[in-house]
Specification:
Elements lengths: L2 H7 L15 H13 L6 H6 L6 H6 L7 H4 L21 E2 L5 E5 L25 H13 L5 E5 L8 H12 L6 E6 L1 H4 L6 H7 L5 E6 L8 H12 L4 E6 L8 H13 L2 E7 L14 H11 L10 E6 L4 E5 L4 E4 L3 E5 L5 E5 L13 H8 L7
Parallel strand pairs: 2-3, 3-4, 4-5, 5-6, 6-7, 7-8
Antiparallel strand pairs: 1-2, 8-9, 10-11, 11-12
The structure holds pyridoxal-5'-phosphate.
Pyridoxal-5'-phosphate (PLP) binds next to strand 2.
């Protein structure tokens, strides 16, 4: 058996086997109720990286009783499908929300089940995405020439066996109007043994192929993960990352900066930081939106621009991603814009001078006054 398959088949899926969980029988009985609603999976590689109760890796994958709070609380605003993905599916498992790109869910299994998952409603339950469903998804893309970008998601597309993945990628690549294929995956960071020379040989046939991987904490970047990402980068795949802002895991400027630096070191370009979605059972992970803006302020200008991702809220109900930026415009009008830099210092940038319909040459006097338009605020 391949090493990664062994790690998967040795996964923790039961309360009795969870690491660092109180011995109390009563607690465990209650935790079983959580797991009945929201399944557990921690593959044995990821399990081996968990060092302590409540460490940042533990928090991401070990269930707690708080997950049922949203279900008990009648006033909770959290819902099972916060982005209304099911409402934007012209055919099953394919979300067509933006004009030129679609998201195709190829399975519902992951190398670890994240407790904060936006698709908590469907991940890790028995059942598969059937061949027929996939065929219809690919056919939809065939029939919609406006689709030039597909994101394979799930679940995790890299848990699909090599042969099947090769077939799916091959069928997508045969669609003439499809320009790029993206794979959204947490495999390289949570089950790096899955990245094998055989897998890379398959992937490299389908360029331009992009990866968006999922990393939330610097401790996830182990020597094994580094090896996997190097192999992918050497295969010629541009690597990006997505991070979910999580209370108690990465809502700290030092942690976030270290994560961004470590990602750049393994040739991953940080792409998005997500405000946590309003998924039922995940309220205890949510931070104030202000926190995300603070984290971006702490990165922007203070470190390589390459290491500063976009901070986004995926609009509840299915409006798509909205990018949020800390305020950098102090004031603006037709003549000038007053901006604030990363140190809080204020600068003025004069707008191009509006020329009258009949182009006229400025007199010396007028030129001088144009230079004076821009005045620093007192
Ligand atoms: C995030 C997402 C995309 C891709 O968005 P980009 O901003 O292009 O990365 C496409 N479709 C859906 C449904 C998405 O959620």
């Amino acid at each position: 058996m391949q090493e990664w398959k062994k790690h998967l088949s040795d996964s923790v899926v039961k309360v009795e086997d969870l690491p660092f969980v109180p011995e109390s029988l009563e607690y465990r009985e209650r935790l079983k109720k959580v797991v009945d609603v929201f399944p557990v999976r921690i593959n044995s590689y990821f399990l081996s990286q968990i060092k302590n109760e409540n460490d940042p890796l533990w928090k991401q994958v070990v269930p707690t009783l708080e997950e049922l709070d949203d279900i008990i609380d009648e006033e909770s605003l959290l819902v099972s499908d916060p982005l209304n993905e099911e409402g934007d599916m012209p055919v099953p498992e394919l979300v067509h929300r933006y004009p030129d790109r679609v998201l195709l869910m190829v399975n519902n299994q992951c190398p670890v089940i994240c407790r904060f998952c936006t698709r908590k409603r469907k991940i890790g339950f028995p059942g598969v995405v059937s061949r027929e469903t996939l065929r219809r998804g690919i056919e939809y893309i065939h029939n919609h020439s406006e689709v030039r970008d597909v994101i394979l998601s799930g679940g995790d597309p890299l848990l699909v066996p090599d042969k099947e993945l090769d077939r799916i990628l091959g069928e997508l690549r045969s669609i003439p109007h499809l320009e790029i294929i993206r794979i959204g995956t947490r495999v390289p960071g949570t089950l790096p043994q899955r990245v094998t020379p055989e897998l890379c040989d398959i992937l490299k046939k389908y360029h331009p192929l992009y990866f968006n991987m999922h990393f939330n904490h610097p401790d996830e970047i182990t020597p094994e993960v580094e090896r996997a990402c190097n192999m992918l980068a050497d295969t010629g795949i541009p690597l990006g990352s997505q991070t979910v802002l999580l209370k108690g895991v990465n809502d700290d400027p030092k942690v976030m900066k270290e994560l961004m630096h470590k990602l750049l070191m393994i040739r991953i370009k940080p792409y998005y930081i997500y405000q946590a979605d309003m998924a039922l059972g995940t309220d205890h992970f949510r931070t104030d939106v202000q926190k995300g803006l603070e984290l971006i302020s702490d990165l922007q200008g203070h470190t390589s621009g390459m290491g500063v991702p976009y901070f986004v809220i995926d609009a509840p109900g299915g409006g798509g991603k909205v990018r949020l930026l800390p305020d950098t415009i102090v004031e603006h009008n037709e003549k000038e814009i007053i901006i604030k830099n990363y140190e809080g210092k204020v600068f003025c940038y004069p707008q191009p001078i509006k020329k009258s319909a009949k182009m006229k040459v400025l007199t010396t006097e007028e030129t001088v006054s144009a230079e004076n338009i821009c005045q620093m605020p007192a």
